[in-house]
Structure formats: structure tokens, C-alpha cells
Amino acid sequence: MSELIGGAMLGAVFGELLKVVIEAKNKSQEYESELEKLKSTLESITPIIQETETLNIALNIPEQETAKLKEELIKGTELVRKCSEVKCCCFKRVNYSDKLNNLNQSIERFIKVNMQTQMARDNKKILVEVNEVFNQVEIDGPCSPPDPPASTPGLDAPMKELRTELVKDDGMQVIVVTAPGGAGKTTLVKKLCADDQVKGKFQENIFFVTVSKTPEVKIIVQRIFQHKKREVPTFQTDEAAINDLERLLKSFGQKAILLVLDDVWSESLVQKFMFKLPNYKILVTSRSVFPQFGSGHHLKPLNDEAAMILFRSSTTPQDGKLSFFDENLAKKILRVCKGSPLALTVVGKLLRGEPAAIWQSKVKEWDQGKSIFISGTELLVCLQSSLDALDEEVKECYLDLGSFPQHQRIPITALIDMWMELHVWVEDGLSAITYLHQLSDRNLVSLVITRKNVSDGGYYNDHFVMQHDLLRDLIIHQSMSEPIEQTKRLIIDISGNQFPKWWSEKKLNPIHARLLSISTDETFSSGWYELNAPEVEVVVLNLRTNKYTLPNFMGNMGKLKVVIVLNYGFLPAELSNFSLLGSDTVSKLKRIRLEHISIPSFGVQINNLQKISLVMCNVDQAFRNSNFHISYAFPNLLEFEIDYCNDLEELPGGLCDIVSLKKLNIINCHKLSTLPKEIGKLVKLEELRLACCTGLSELPEMVAELSKLKLLDISGCLSITKLPTQIGKLCSLEMLCMRRCSSCQLPKSIENLKRLNVVKCDEETASQWEPYKLILTKLKVEVL
């Protein structure tokens, strides 16, 4: 017995007992009621067993702590087996019936006492370590290679060839993989970085950097420093950055180093990263051939066999059940796609789940010479066919994605803000998510959720969209097909201070675009030409400089409703000329989103502003400014979001004077320690989210005065040990989220929350709610 106990995992022993119970119940009717009761008990505690084993492994807890339970489970397994073999005998039946009931009670008792105690201890250990996790911006590091797709047909041969070149000690220092866009270059290098031989040679010194069209040498170097957990320098020039990088790499001694530069447009950029170091190699992907580095490795189109595998997988739904697939039609489609992985994937997604008639119609069009290509840009036009398949409403939303840079995560909350003002069919966040899922199903975007199950109730601050660079080219091509004066979306990319010719020459009539997007790089000087765009309702500014001035022409946009400023640089950008948003002309402005911005002061009154979102911003200086009265600046605010603002220690007291406020979301602000005691003045507040504010020690008693509050979220607020005594006064509360709040005690007044429908929490916290479920009959406790 002791050998069996010591050698088996808790989950395996538990699973064996459950299996034997089910078999015995199906085979014998002698103990049907006892076995059914035992089966129900075991199934109900399965999550506890799984979580316990996971925690024990993660925290290196000795197996002896679960030995007693394992012994009980093994004995139980033997008992059940004996029961199933017992013939009909009154005495034996009664005897085994008692033993089965005793086994059931023993397991229930052990779980309630011993296991809950152990899990509470394990959770406390996690809480001790959690601050280290929160202090890491990215657990895997900003230059960690992304995971390759599960299926990569046709890449085995180039994979083998490149692997050989990489792992040998001599040979070319720079290895270039070249092919047209969408041919699978990035997929190939991702697969290489995950290869055991490559990882064995380069180990922790593989740096994966996406370069794109406008390279940022200083930021690339800063991210490599950050990846190696070194102090991140601030560089004045690219040359200084390269020199520091060379010194860093030399400090690794004889260790092998692999630098992956993905999507390189300029041969000169690669030259900057070439150093005379042993065991140092650079792997480059590019749409262009770089003769200086040899002939390179040209990634060929997929052969028919690999293309068919990829196409078939693209048309197969997640459940694996094909509604229609015709081999002959598929072969005709492969000829149209000409071995392009991206084209195969997009067309496959387009036809997924469609009936035979749609397949036949498409193939007939192509057989009759109706080309899906124009001007030789095969992939671009192939993607156009997928765009044409979208409903008009979804298509309009999709075209708006061109407002954001390639290779960057697009915040879904930013899309929601702009779509709700531009498109009447987007009513709220949920409908926006629906459109994004349709785009994802068509393989036009990738949805990324960075943190799951942290916050609830339609909150999407941890949801993002990724778009391929070619897809963005398609969007811009579509949006700019009309004359600039007549286009609905004006999307402008500025490199350095080189403005488009039409703009710098100032020869245009008024522009009628409703959406204006301007992207600038780190060398832009904020010297703006005038722009007459009176119809603009949404402005998206994508920047990379440390200092940025809002263009004066925004002050003349009488229909402006949404301003989104996103900084993709390494440091927060100082934003100036913010006061123009408070001019009398810009009287319809309703939503502002600032991301990675340093805000010295708002210094402006925006009377009709309904929502402001501050993400990864430096806000403490603005909030502490004695001349800043937030209730004066935003007197009619309905929603206030503060997310990942690491310098926020306290909220401005005047916040509680904005009596119009309905939603207050303060998420991932770990230095925030207290809330204003006057918070009860927010008489119209319906949602209060404080998720992952780990330094917040308590909720003010005045929270109980928020009579219209429908949702309260304190998930991940590890320091909160109790709820307000009179929280039962929240007569409108419908949802309470308190995951990872195992130390938080519930006051007796909880029983007065008559409208409370849902509590989202963890297993340990759920046990505190059990007594209240008898009083709050509509209450549903959802356990993570």
C-alpha cells in the first residue's frame, strides 16, 4: 500500500476511483443508490482535486500532504471492486452499503477540512509571490519568439536547410529568407526558433524582433536590454544604441546568439546589427532580395500536396466536421491561389461552411476568366475577394482597422469607441465583439486576449486585434480608391517629416472624410500643415516620439466626437496643445482615449465629454496639480477608465463631485492604496471596477451609499480583507466579482442584497456564500 501511495499522483488515484465507481454502478444494481451518491460526490470535487494537484506541482508541495487522502481513495477503489463482485446476500449487502456510505462521508469530510486548509495555505504562498509577477511587463520577454502554428505543411524542406545553416559554427553570419508577402516567411522562422536543435544551440539568447517598414533601431535595442532584464538605457542616436548593444552581446562571452529580424525592408538596417562576434548569427525575413548577403533562401510557393493540406485545414471548422469539400473544385481553387499560404488560408476561410453552390459559383467565375488579381498584386486582390464577401456593416468596420499601424495590437476598446460614433449598427461592446468574431472567422484579423477571467460584465480592456500587414495594405487600397477630397477614411503614414505631396502643396478643397488617421515615426517633429477637414468625427493619432503636439487643425473640427492617441514608443510621450480640445468649436467631443502618454496637466474644460480612458499613462502629476479640478474639466463625464497607470497612488478628490458618472473602472493600478471617502457622492454610479489593484487595502464604508450600483468588481484585489459592513445597502447590486479574494470576509448585511444575481469567485470564497444562498434564492455563485 505505501509503495502505491508514494508512486501515484493524486489525480490518477482519484480518477481510478471515479472510473471504478462508474463501472460498478453500470454493472450492478445492488448498490445503485450508494454508488450514485458516491459518484456525485466525486464529480463535485473534481475541480478541487485538479486545482490542488496543480498548486502542489507549481509550488513544489511535498506529496506527503496528500498521502492520507490518496490512501483513502485507494482503499475506496478496492472496496468498490469488492462490492461489484458480491452476490445477493442480505447481510453482505447491508455491510457493504454501510461501508460505501462511510467512504462517501469520509471523502466529503476530508475535502471540507484538510483540503480547503491546504489550498488556503497554497493561495497565500501564491500571494507572496504575486508581486514579482506584476512587476514583469511581459513574462516571456519582449523579444521572445512567438509560437508557430500547429500545422505548417510544406515547410519541412526549407526548415531542414535553414536549421543546418544556423546550427553550424561557420558559414554566413547573415541568413536571409526572402519571398513575396504572405508566403510563410514569418511562420518558417517561428518554427525554426521552436526547433529543439536551434534552441539547444542558442538557448536563452534568441531575440525575435519584428522590424516592419519603418525601423526603430533605438527601440529595438531597448527591447533587447529589457528582454535580458538589464537596465534599459535612453539613447540619443541610433549609433549609440548599436554601440551599447554590441557591448551587451560581447558580455555573453562565447555563448551562441541568434537575432531574428522579421519583415525587414532595408538592407542597410541589417548592416547596423552586424558585429564581429563568435557564434553570432542574424536571421532575416524580407520581401526583397539582399544581394550583399548572398542569394539567400527563397521560400517557394507550396506544392500541390502541401497546398491541399493547408486548404483543407482552412476549410475545416473547429469541430472537424466538413459540411462540403469537393476534391476537383479544390484543385481548381489551388491553381487560383498559386501556392500562396495566405491566399489558401483566406479563400479556405471564405468557403468554410458554405454549400456546394457557393463553391461552384466561385470556381465558375474564375474559370470564365474573372480574375481575383489586379496589377500583378496577387495576394492583395485575393484578399479583396474575402473583403467582398463581408456584409456591408462588417466591411465598414473592417476598413476602419486601417487607422492603426501594422504589427501592433489594436485595443478593442478603442474600436468600440470609434465604431459607436461612426456606425449606428454598433450599439455597444458586445455587438462590436460580434463583428470582430466574424472578421476573425474570415481570417482577416486575429483576436488576442491577454488576461482571461480577471474582470467581467462586458469589460474588454485586455482584448486586442492583430492584423497582417498585407491586410492593412488592402484596407488602405480600398479606402483610397476614391479622390482624397471624397474618401470616407483618410489614412496618412508620415515617415520623418515627409508629408504627402497633396498635403504639403495645399492644393486640396475641403476633405469630407469622417475618419482621419495619422501615423508618424520617431523622427517626426510635430510641425503640421493646415488641413481643412470639417466632416471628421474620429481622429486616430499613432505616434512614436517622446514629445508630441496635437495639430491645431483639430480645433476646427466642429463634428469631432472621438480622439484616440496611441503612443507606440518606448517611453510615455509628453502631450501638448491638449487645450484645443476644449475650444468652443470642438463642442461635440464625447470620447478621449490616451495610451502611453505622460500628462502634466489637462488644463481644459470639455463640457460634453462622456468618456475618458487613460491606459499606461503617467497621471499622478496631473491629478496632484492643485490648479486641476477634474469635476471642472469634465463636468458631464459618464465613464472614467484608468488602466495600468503605474504611478497612480490616489484619485483626485474632485472625482466624487462628478455626480453624472455612471462607470468608474480602475484596473491594474498596483500603487493605488485608498479610494476617496466621499465616493458615496457618486449617486448615479452603476459600475465600479477595481480589478487587480493589489495595493488597495479596503473599500470605504461610503461605497454602501451607491444605491444605483449594479456591478462591483474587486477581482485580484489581494489586500482587501473585508467588505464594507453595510454593503447590504447596495439595493441595486446585481453582479459581484471577487475572484482571487480568498482573504476577504463577508459581513452579515450581505443577506440584504436582494437583487444580487451573480457572484463570480474562486472555490474558497464560494464556501462563504453557501449560507446566503438559502436567503438570496436567485443568487448564482460561479466558481472559476
UniProtKB/TrEMBL annotation:
All residue ranges annotated as the RPW8 domain in the record: 1-149
Coiled coil: none
GO molecular function ontology, one term from the record: ADP binding
GO biological process: defense response
Keywords: Plant defense, Repeat
Gene3D superfamilies membership: Helical domain of apoptotic protease-activating factors, P-loop containing nucleotide triphosphate hydrolases, Ribonuclease Inhibitor, Winged helix-like DNA-binding domain superfamily/Winged helix DNA-binding domain
One Pfam family named in its UniProt record: NB-ARC
Entries under PANTHER family matching the protein: PLANT BROAD-SPECTRUM MILDEW RESISTANCE PROTEIN RPW8 (PTHR36766), RPW8 DOMAIN-CONTAINING PROTEIN (PTHR36766:SF3)
Family indicated by similarity: Belongs to the disease resistance NB-LRR family.
Protein name: RPW8 domain-containing protein
Organism: Acer saccharum (Sugar maple)
